[in-house]
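User: Run a structure prediction on this.
Assistant: Running it now.
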Amino acid sequence: MAEAAKAKALKAARRAQSDYEQASEKLEQRREARKAAFEQARAAGLSTREIAEAAGLHFTRVARILQSK
C-alpha cells in the first residue's frame, strides 16, 4: 500500500513539473510576442505612452519591455 502511494506521489510530482515547464515556455513565448508587437507599434510611429494606453500599462513599464533583451 505504501509503495502505491509513493508511486502515485512520484507520478504527481513529475506531472506537476512537466506542467510547470510547459507553462513557463508558453509565458516566455507570450512575452516575446508582446515585445514584438510593442516594437512593431513603435516602428509604426506610436509613442511609448500611446502603446501603454492601448495595452493598459504604465508607460514606464512599456519602456522597460522595449529595453529588455
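The chain has a mean pLDDT of 96.
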